[in-house]
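> forwarded from #structure-qc
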């Protein structure tokens, strides 16, 4: 470094060190983690397990702040408008970050620009299940049946524009078949009506159908994720069972507001990866039919963009609009 311009050199050195200096002592107080859904749902359950392990990793309390409404947009917008100081953070799901923006009027901010990625927390696939009266024992059987009876097979979802709805559309598009969508107000009524035989097919999170499958009131054919799930290892993936390349999972990401300093992101990423690697967290997610992920902020950003683009294409091809 030249000594002819000491002030300039000092400024350059300060600029290079500023992210590290900014993170010195961080975090010095509790963190607030917004979950943009009401308490009690799958996202809230996973978020609270994550918050407990993250608090241990950072040495500060992590306060879960449930801010539901507008399909998750109210809570997400709260973080998008928060100071980028590392104390206001977002536990977001793919429904908020990848699906809502493509359903007109749902997202009041640019999901690809409003947040700083920290880490991918985990994935939870749906289960493809049918009523026992459906003469299909495999995914290939179901596809053949749907081709023989165009529009005759109805599938239940948790509601219009939900992941289970779009998973059904992705399945129909990938298999080259037509299915009749029947939306419900949540997983419980969708499952109840499928068990009653009022609809034939169901895409739902594993915990909401597990007891019905074990009792023989539903027949599980496959899971919709990229890998089998630990809690039901005998179930193949849809990709294995009939539609190569098929993948549909709920996922959760950990974010800060846009402009979060790199040094703070690094602290949070390392702490989050330690939290995700604990046996306690893995066991908690397995009960939800989910698995932890982890990795770098760049990997989360790339995963988000790929998922965002995929659902945009599915929604456009199916002509789905905001309900």
């Amino acid at each position: 470094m030249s000594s002819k311009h000491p002030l300039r050199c000092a400024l350059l050195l300060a600029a290079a060190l500023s992210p590290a200096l900014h993170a010195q002592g961080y975090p010095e107080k509790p963190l607030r983690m917004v979950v943009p859904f009401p308490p009690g749902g799958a996202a809230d359950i996973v978020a609270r397990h994550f918050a407990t392990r993250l608090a241990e990793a950072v040495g500060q309390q992590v306060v879960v702040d449930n801010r539901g409404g507008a399909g998750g947009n109210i809570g997400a917008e709260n973080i998008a408008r928060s100071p980028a100081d590392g104390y206001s953070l977002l536990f977001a799901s793919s429904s908020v970050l990848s699906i809502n923006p493509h359903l007109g009027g749902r997202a009041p901010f640019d999901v690809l620009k409003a947040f700083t990625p920290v880490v991918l927390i985990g994935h939870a696939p749906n289960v493809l299940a049918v009523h026992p009266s459906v003469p299909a024992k495999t995914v290939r059987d179901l596809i053949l049946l749907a081709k023989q009876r165009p529009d005759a097979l109805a599938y239940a979802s948790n509601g219009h524009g939900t992941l289970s709805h779009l998973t059904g559309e992705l399945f129909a598009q990938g298999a080259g078949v037509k299915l009749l969508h029947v939306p419900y107000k949540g997983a419980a009524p969708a499952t109840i009506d499928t068990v009653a035989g009022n609809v034939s097919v169901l895409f739902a999170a594993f915990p909401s159908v597990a007891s019905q499958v074990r009792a023989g009131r539903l027949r599980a054919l496959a899971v919709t994720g990229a890998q089998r799930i630990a809690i039901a290892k005998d179930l193949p993936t849809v990709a294995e069972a009939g539609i190569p390349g098929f993948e549909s999972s709920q996922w959760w990401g950990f974010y800060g507001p846009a402009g979060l300093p790199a040094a703070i992101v690094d602290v949070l990423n390392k702490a989050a990866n330690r939290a995700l690697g604990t046996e306690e967290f893995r066991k908690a997610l397995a009960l939800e039919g989910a698995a932890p992920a982890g990795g770098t902020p760049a990997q989360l950003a790339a995963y988000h963009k790929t998922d965002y683009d995929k659902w945009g294409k599915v929604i456009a091809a199916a002509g789905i609009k905001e309900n």
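QC bot note: The chain has two domains: 29-124+250-318, 125-241. The two ends are 62 Å apart (CA to CA).
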